[in-house]
UniProtKB/TrEMBL annotation:
GO molecular function per UniProt: glyoxylate reductase (NADPH) activity; hydroxypyruvate reductase [NAD(P)H] activity; NAD binding
Entry-linked Gene3D superfamilies: NAD(P)-binding Rossmann-like Domain (3.40.50.720)
Transmembrane segments: none
Protein name: Glyoxylate reductase
Limits of the D-isomer specific 2-hydroxyacid dehydrogenase NAD-binding domain: 122-294
UniProt xrefs under InterPro entries: D-isomer_2-hydroxyacid_DH, D-isomer_2_OHA_DH_cat_dom, D-isomer_DH_CS, D-isomer_DH_CS1, D-isomer_DH_NAD-bd, NAD(P)-bd_dom_sf
Gene Ontology CC terms, in alphabetical order: cytosol
Highest classification ranks of the organism: Eukaryota, Fungi, Dikarya, Ascomycota, Pezizomycotina
Family of this protein: Belongs to the D-isomer specific 2-hydroxyacid dehydrogenase family.
Keywords: NAD, Oxidoreductase
Boundaries of every D-isomer specific 2-hydroxyacid dehydrogenase catalytic domain copy: 61-325
Organism: Lophiostoma macrostomum CBS 122681
Length: 335
Protein backbone atom coordinates (compact mmCIF):
# COMPACT_ATOMS: atom_id res chain seq x y z
CA UNK A 1 0.00 0.00 0.00
CA UNK A 2 1.59 3.27 -1.09
CA UNK A 3 2.26 5.85 1.62
CA UNK A 4 -0.78 5.15 3.79
CA UNK A 5 0.50 5.75 7.29
CA UNK A 6 -1.65 5.56 10.43
CA UNK A 7 -1.47 7.81 13.48
CA UNK A 8 -2.64 6.95 16.99
CA UNK A 9 -3.54 9.95 19.15
CA UNK A 10 -3.71 8.93 22.83
CA UNK A 11 -3.53 5.27 23.81
CA UNK A 12 -4.88 1.84 22.88
CA UNK A 13 -5.13 0.03 26.21
CA UNK A 14 -6.99 -3.21 25.52
CA UNK A 15 -6.04 -4.08 21.93
CA UNK A 16 -2.39 -3.09 21.78
CA UNK A 17 -1.36 -6.14 19.72
CA UNK A 18 -4.14 -5.47 17.21
CA UNK A 19 -2.95 -1.84 16.88
CA UNK A 20 0.59 -3.06 16.18
CA UNK A 21 -0.83 -5.47 13.58
CA UNK A 22 -2.07 -2.42 11.65
CA UNK A 23 1.64 -1.95 10.88
CA UNK A 24 1.33 -4.92 8.49
CA UNK A 25 -0.99 -2.98 6.20
CA UNK A 26 -0.02 0.66 6.85
CA UNK A 27 3.16 2.14 5.40
CA UNK A 28 4.11 3.42 8.87
CA UNK A 29 2.66 3.72 12.38
CA UNK A 30 2.96 7.00 14.26
CA UNK A 31 1.95 7.53 17.88
CA UNK A 32 1.17 10.74 19.72
CA UNK A 33 0.64 9.44 23.30
CA UNK A 34 0.94 12.69 25.20
CA UNK A 35 1.46 16.39 24.70
CA UNK A 36 -0.65 19.49 24.33
CA UNK A 37 -2.80 21.06 21.65
CA UNK A 38 -0.08 23.57 20.84
CA UNK A 39 2.56 20.89 20.54
CA UNK A 40 0.30 18.71 18.37
CA UNK A 41 -0.58 21.61 16.08
CA UNK A 42 3.06 22.54 15.70
CA UNK A 43 4.06 18.93 14.88
CA UNK A 44 1.30 18.80 12.25
CA UNK A 45 2.36 22.13 10.77
CA UNK A 46 6.02 21.04 10.71
CA UNK A 47 5.09 18.07 8.54
CA UNK A 48 5.80 15.40 11.17
CA UNK A 49 2.73 13.36 10.14
CA UNK A 50 2.83 14.28 6.46
CA UNK A 51 1.96 10.81 5.05
CA UNK A 52 -0.81 9.95 7.55
CA UNK A 53 -3.86 8.63 5.72
CA UNK A 54 -6.02 7.56 8.67
CA UNK A 55 -5.89 8.36 12.35
CA UNK A 56 -7.13 6.66 15.51
CA UNK A 57 -8.50 9.22 17.96
CA UNK A 58 -8.72 7.71 21.46
CA UNK A 59 -11.53 8.81 23.73
CA UNK A 60 -9.17 10.42 26.24
CA UNK A 61 -7.15 12.24 23.57
CA UNK A 62 -9.51 15.20 23.62
CA UNK A 63 -7.61 16.10 26.80
CA UNK A 64 -4.40 16.28 24.72
CA UNK A 65 -5.47 17.95 21.50
CA UNK A 66 -8.76 19.57 22.44
CA UNK A 67 -11.68 19.52 20.02
CA UNK A 68 -11.19 18.63 16.38
CA UNK A 69 -12.39 22.05 15.25
CA UNK A 70 -11.64 24.02 12.12
CA UNK A 71 -8.24 25.20 13.40
CA UNK A 72 -7.06 21.67 14.13
CA UNK A 73 -8.56 20.22 10.94
CA UNK A 74 -6.70 22.82 8.87
CA UNK A 75 -3.41 21.83 10.53
CA UNK A 76 -3.82 18.09 9.88
CA UNK A 77 -1.77 16.75 6.96
CA UNK A 78 -3.38 17.07 3.53
CA UNK A 79 -2.84 13.30 3.11
CA UNK A 80 -5.37 12.61 5.90
CA UNK A 81 -8.64 11.09 4.66
CA UNK A 82 -10.08 9.24 7.67
CA UNK A 83 -10.63 9.97 11.37
CA UNK A 84 -11.53 6.85 13.35
CA UNK A 85 -12.86 8.08 16.68
CA UNK A 86 -13.21 5.93 19.79
CA UNK A 87 -16.57 6.92 21.27
CA UNK A 88 -20.24 6.78 20.36
CA UNK A 89 -20.55 10.51 20.99
CA UNK A 90 -18.42 12.69 18.74
CA UNK A 91 -19.64 16.20 19.58
CA UNK A 92 -15.97 17.19 20.01
CA UNK A 93 -15.37 16.67 16.27
CA UNK A 94 -16.65 19.29 13.82
CA UNK A 95 -18.16 16.82 11.34
CA UNK A 96 -19.37 19.43 8.78
CA UNK A 97 -15.83 20.89 8.71
CA UNK A 98 -14.41 17.36 8.19
CA UNK A 99 -16.85 16.76 5.33
CA UNK A 100 -15.81 20.08 3.76
CA UNK A 101 -12.16 19.00 3.95
CA UNK A 102 -12.99 15.61 2.41
CA UNK A 103 -12.28 13.71 5.64
CA UNK A 104 -14.58 10.83 6.57
CA UNK A 105 -15.28 10.12 10.25
CA UNK A 106 -16.27 6.94 12.09
CA UNK A 107 -17.46 6.50 15.68
CA UNK A 108 -18.16 3.41 17.81
CA UNK A 109 -21.90 2.86 17.99
CA UNK A 110 -23.30 -0.62 18.80
CA UNK A 111 -20.22 -1.62 20.84
CA UNK A 112 -21.37 0.83 23.54
CA UNK A 113 -25.05 -0.13 23.63
CA UNK A 114 -25.20 -2.76 26.35
CA UNK A 115 -22.81 -1.21 28.87
CA UNK A 116 -24.39 2.25 28.58
CA UNK A 117 -27.94 0.86 28.76
CA UNK A 118 -26.94 -1.12 31.87
CA UNK A 119 -25.80 2.13 33.49
CA UNK A 120 -29.05 3.86 32.47
CA UNK A 121 -31.05 1.09 34.18
CA UNK A 122 -28.76 1.22 37.23
CA UNK A 123 -29.35 4.98 37.48
CA UNK A 124 -33.09 4.63 36.93
CA UNK A 125 -33.51 1.93 39.58
CA UNK A 126 -31.21 3.84 41.92
CA UNK A 127 -33.23 7.02 41.45
CA UNK A 128 -36.56 5.20 41.88
CA UNK A 129 -35.32 3.75 45.17
CA UNK A 130 -33.47 6.83 46.49
CA UNK A 131 -30.41 4.62 46.62
CA UNK A 132 -27.92 7.45 47.14
CA UNK A 133 -29.51 8.50 50.42
CA UNK A 134 -29.32 4.89 51.69
CA UNK A 135 -25.71 4.47 50.48
CA UNK A 136 -24.64 7.59 52.36
CA UNK A 137 -26.60 6.90 55.55
CA UNK A 138 -25.35 3.34 56.02
CA UNK A 139 -21.68 4.33 55.60
CA UNK A 140 -22.08 7.26 57.96
CA UNK A 141 -23.31 4.91 60.71
CA UNK A 142 -26.85 6.31 60.47
CA UNK A 143 -28.39 3.01 59.33
CA UNK A 144 -31.38 4.19 57.20
CA UNK A 145 -30.87 7.92 57.84
CA UNK A 146 -33.57 10.07 56.20
CA UNK A 147 -35.00 6.99 54.53
CA UNK A 148 -38.12 7.39 52.44
CA UNK A 149 -40.01 4.84 50.39
CA UNK A 150 -39.14 4.56 46.73
CA UNK A 151 -41.12 3.51 43.65
CA UNK A 152 -41.41 0.34 41.59
CA UNK A 153 -40.60 0.52 37.88
CA UNK A 154 -43.51 -1.85 37.15
CA UNK A 155 -46.36 -0.16 35.25
CA UNK A 156 -44.50 3.17 35.11
CA UNK A 157 -44.23 4.91 31.75
CA UNK A 158 -40.65 5.18 30.55
CA UNK A 159 -40.12 7.85 27.90
CA UNK A 160 -37.03 7.44 25.76
CA UNK A 161 -35.82 10.52 23.94
CA UNK A 162 -33.57 9.26 21.12
CA UNK A 163 -34.38 5.65 20.24
CA UNK A 164 -31.06 4.70 18.64
CA UNK A 165 -28.70 1.93 19.67
CA UNK A 166 -28.59 2.74 23.38
CA UNK A 167 -32.24 3.88 23.59
CA UNK A 168 -33.35 0.52 22.13
CA UNK A 169 -31.14 -1.39 24.57
CA UNK A 170 -32.69 0.62 27.43
CA UNK A 171 -36.17 -0.29 26.12
CA UNK A 172 -35.30 -4.01 25.97
CA UNK A 173 -34.09 -3.98 29.57
CA UNK A 174 -36.94 -1.82 30.91
CA UNK A 175 -39.53 -4.19 29.46
CA UNK A 176 -38.21 -6.88 31.79
CA UNK A 177 -39.17 -4.60 34.71
CA UNK A 178 -42.77 -4.35 33.50
CA UNK A 179 -42.51 -0.75 32.30
CA UNK A 180 -44.65 0.74 29.53
CA UNK A 181 -42.32 2.23 26.98
CA UNK A 182 -42.78 5.18 24.67
CA UNK A 183 -40.23 7.08 22.64
CA UNK A 184 -39.64 10.12 20.53
CA UNK A 185 -37.24 10.39 17.60
CA UNK A 186 -37.27 12.86 14.77
CA UNK A 187 -39.06 10.16 12.75
CA UNK A 188 -40.91 7.01 13.76
CA UNK A 189 -38.87 3.83 13.44
CA UNK A 190 -40.01 0.78 11.45
CA UNK A 191 -42.09 -1.50 13.73
CA UNK A 192 -39.30 -4.11 13.72
CA UNK A 193 -36.95 -1.60 15.43
CA UNK A 194 -39.43 -0.22 17.97
CA UNK A 195 -38.92 -2.87 20.68
CA UNK A 196 -42.69 -2.73 21.27
CA UNK A 197 -42.45 0.93 22.31
CA UNK A 198 -45.08 3.49 21.32
CA UNK A 199 -44.03 6.44 19.15
CA UNK A 200 -45.21 9.79 20.54
CA UNK A 201 -44.53 13.46 19.84
CA UNK A 202 -41.87 15.26 21.90
CA UNK A 203 -44.58 17.14 23.78
CA UNK A 204 -46.54 13.96 24.53
CA UNK A 205 -43.35 12.28 25.76
CA UNK A 206 -42.73 15.13 28.18
CA UNK A 207 -46.35 15.28 29.38
CA UNK A 208 -46.96 11.57 29.98
CA UNK A 209 -43.69 9.93 31.07
CA UNK A 210 -43.00 8.90 34.68
CA UNK A 211 -39.31 8.46 33.87
CA UNK A 212 -37.52 10.24 31.04
CA UNK A 213 -34.32 8.71 29.68
CA UNK A 214 -32.15 10.85 27.43
CA UNK A 215 -30.49 8.81 24.71
CA UNK A 216 -30.04 11.23 21.85
CA UNK A 217 -26.84 12.74 20.52
CA UNK A 218 -25.69 16.25 21.32
CA UNK A 219 -25.45 18.83 18.56
CA UNK A 220 -26.33 22.49 18.10
CA UNK A 221 -30.03 21.69 17.74
CA UNK A 222 -30.26 19.38 20.78
CA UNK A 223 -28.31 21.51 23.29
CA UNK A 224 -30.64 22.32 26.23
CA UNK A 225 -33.44 20.32 24.60
CA UNK A 226 -34.60 19.88 28.21
CA UNK A 227 -34.89 23.23 29.94
CA UNK A 228 -37.49 25.13 32.02
CA UNK A 229 -40.31 25.10 29.41
CA UNK A 230 -39.89 21.34 28.99
CA UNK A 231 -39.78 20.72 32.77
CA UNK A 232 -42.98 22.77 33.06
CA UNK A 233 -44.74 20.33 30.72
CA UNK A 234 -43.67 17.23 32.65
CA UNK A 235 -45.68 15.29 35.22
CA UNK A 236 -45.02 16.30 38.81
CA UNK A 237 -42.54 13.89 40.36
CA UNK A 238 -40.89 12.74 37.13
CA UNK A 239 -37.51 11.01 37.25
CA UNK A 240 -34.80 12.11 34.79
CA UNK A 241 -32.04 9.77 33.61
CA UNK A 242 -29.21 11.07 31.45
CA UNK A 243 -26.49 8.81 30.06
CA UNK A 244 -26.18 10.71 26.77
CA UNK A 245 -24.54 14.14 27.11
CA UNK A 246 -24.75 16.75 29.89
CA UNK A 247 -25.50 19.83 27.75
CA UNK A 248 -28.73 18.21 26.52
CA UNK A 249 -30.16 19.41 29.85
CA UNK A 250 -30.01 22.96 31.15
CA UNK A 251 -28.40 21.90 34.46
CA UNK A 252 -29.47 25.04 36.36
CA UNK A 253 -33.09 24.45 35.29
CA UNK A 254 -32.79 20.81 36.43
CA UNK A 255 -31.56 21.95 39.85
CA UNK A 256 -34.56 24.32 40.14
CA UNK A 257 -36.93 21.54 39.10
CA UNK A 258 -35.38 19.19 41.68
CA UNK A 259 -35.65 21.80 44.40
CA UNK A 260 -39.35 22.39 43.65
CA UNK A 261 -39.82 18.56 43.50
CA UNK A 262 -41.26 18.93 40.00
CA UNK A 263 -38.53 16.41 39.31
CA UNK A 264 -38.58 13.80 42.09
CA UNK A 265 -35.01 12.80 41.49
CA UNK A 266 -32.47 12.10 38.78
CA UNK A 267 -29.80 9.61 37.75
CA UNK A 268 -26.94 11.24 35.86
CA UNK A 269 -23.77 9.90 34.25
CA UNK A 270 -23.03 13.06 32.25
CA UNK A 271 -22.87 16.77 33.10
CA UNK A 272 -22.90 20.10 31.39
CA UNK A 273 -19.30 21.06 32.21
CA UNK A 274 -17.52 17.82 33.04
CA UNK A 275 -15.76 17.23 35.36
CA UNK A 276 -17.48 20.14 37.12
CA UNK A 277 -20.86 19.26 38.64
CA UNK A 278 -23.45 21.84 39.70
CA UNK A 279 -23.45 22.20 43.51
CA UNK A 280 -27.25 21.85 43.46
CA UNK A 281 -26.76 18.29 42.21
CA UNK A 282 -23.84 17.45 44.47
CA UNK A 283 -25.76 18.67 47.53
CA UNK A 284 -28.97 16.85 46.68
CA UNK A 285 -28.77 13.49 48.46
CA UNK A 286 -31.54 11.98 46.33
CA UNK A 287 -29.73 12.42 43.03
CA UNK A 288 -27.64 9.48 41.81
CA UNK A 289 -24.40 10.66 40.25
CA UNK A 290 -21.76 8.80 38.25
CA UNK A 291 -18.59 10.28 36.70
CA UNK A 292 -19.31 9.44 33.02
CA UNK A 293 -18.63 5.70 33.25
CA UNK A 294 -21.28 4.43 30.81
CA UNK A 295 -18.88 2.27 28.82
CA UNK A 296 -16.34 1.62 31.54
CA UNK A 297 -16.09 -2.17 31.44
CA UNK A 298 -13.12 -4.22 30.25
CA UNK A 299 -15.24 -5.99 27.65
CA UNK A 300 -16.80 -2.86 26.18
CA UNK A 301 -13.56 -0.88 26.17
CA UNK A 302 -11.88 -3.67 24.19
CA UNK A 303 -14.84 -4.00 21.81
CA UNK A 304 -14.71 -0.23 21.18
CA UNK A 305 -10.97 -0.28 20.50
CA UNK A 306 -11.35 -3.25 18.13
CA UNK A 307 -14.11 -1.43 16.25
CA UNK A 308 -11.92 1.66 15.82
CA UNK A 309 -9.11 -0.57 14.53
CA UNK A 310 -11.48 -2.35 12.12
CA UNK A 311 -12.49 1.07 10.77
CA UNK A 312 -8.83 2.09 10.49
CA UNK A 313 -7.90 -1.09 8.60
CA UNK A 314 -10.92 -0.81 6.34
CA UNK A 315 -10.00 2.83 5.56
CA UNK A 316 -6.42 1.90 4.66
CA UNK A 317 -7.24 -1.23 2.67
CA UNK A 318 -10.67 -0.54 1.18
CA UNK A 319 -11.14 3.24 1.39
CA UNK A 320 -14.33 2.56 3.32
CA UNK A 321 -15.44 3.05 6.92
CA UNK A 322 -17.55 0.44 8.72
CA UNK A 323 -19.34 2.76 11.16
CA UNK A 324 -19.21 6.15 9.46
CA UNK A 325 -21.11 8.88 11.32
CA UNK A 326 -24.70 9.26 10.06
CA UNK A 327 -24.33 12.96 9.16
CA UNK A 328 -21.94 11.93 6.40
CA UNK A 329 -24.30 9.28 5.06
CA UNK A 330 -26.94 11.47 3.45
CA UNK A 331 -29.57 8.77 3.10
CA UNK A 332 -29.55 8.11 6.88
CA UNK A 333 -28.93 11.66 8.05
CA UNK A 334 -32.51 12.25 9.08
CA UNK A 335 -33.27 9.04 10.92
N1 LIG B 1 -22.50 7.85 29.18
C1 LIG B 1 -21.66 7.31 28.33
O1 LIG B 1 -20.58 6.85 28.69
C2 LIG B 1 -22.06 7.20 26.88
C3 LIG B 1 -21.65 6.07 26.16
C4 LIG B 1 -22.02 5.96 24.83
C5 LIG B 1 -22.78 6.95 24.24
N2 LIG B 1 -23.16 8.04 24.95
C6 LIG B 1 -24.00 9.08 24.35
O2 LIG B 1 -25.24 8.50 23.99
C7 LIG B 1 -25.68 9.08 22.77
C8 LIG B 1 -26.55 8.09 22.04
O3 LIG B 1 -25.75 7.01 21.58
P1 LIG B 1 -26.29 5.96 20.52
O4 LIG B 1 -25.13 5.07 20.21
O5 LIG B 1 -27.55 5.36 21.00
O6 LIG B 1 -26.57 6.91 19.28
P2 LIG B 1 -27.55 6.66 18.06
O7 LIG B 1 -27.10 7.57 16.99
O8 LIG B 1 -27.65 5.20 17.78
O9 LIG B 1 -28.95 7.15 18.62
C9 LIG B 1 -29.30 8.47 18.84
C10 LIG B 1 -30.77 8.62 18.49
O10 LIG B 1 -31.20 9.94 18.82
C11 LIG B 1 -32.09 10.37 17.81
N3 LIG B 1 -32.20 11.82 17.80
C12 LIG B 1 -31.30 12.72 17.33
N4 LIG B 1 -31.78 13.96 17.48
C13 LIG B 1 -32.98 13.85 18.06
C14 LIG B 1 -33.95 14.79 18.49
N5 LIG B 1 -33.77 16.09 18.32
N6 LIG B 1 -35.07 14.31 19.06
C15 LIG B 1 -35.25 12.99 19.23
N7 LIG B 1 -34.36 12.06 18.84
C16 LIG B 1 -33.24 12.48 18.26
C17 LIG B 1 -31.50 9.81 16.54
O11 LIG B 1 -32.46 9.75 15.52
C18 LIG B 1 -31.06 8.42 17.01
O12 LIG B 1 -32.10 7.48 16.85
C19 LIG B 1 -24.38 9.39 22.01
O13 LIG B 1 -24.56 10.47 21.14
C20 LIG B 1 -23.39 9.69 23.10
O14 LIG B 1 -23.26 11.08 23.25
C21 LIG B 1 -22.80 8.18 26.26
Amino acid sequence: MSQRAALLIGAVDHARKEWQDVGKIASKLYEYPEGSREDFLSKCRNGEFKDVYALYRSNQSNGLTGNFDDELLQALPSSLKYICHNGAGYDNIDVPACTKRGILVSSTPIAVNDATADVALFLMLGALRNINQSYQAVRQGKWRGNFQLGHDPKNKVLGILGMGGIGSAVATRAKAFGMQIQYHNRHQLPASEEEGAKYVSFEELLKTSDVLSLNLSLNASTKHIISKPQFDLMKDGIIIVNTARGPLIDEAALVDALESRKVWTAGLDVFEEEPKIHSGLLNNENVVLLPHVGTATFETQRDMELLVLDNLKSAIQKDKLITQVPEQKKERANI
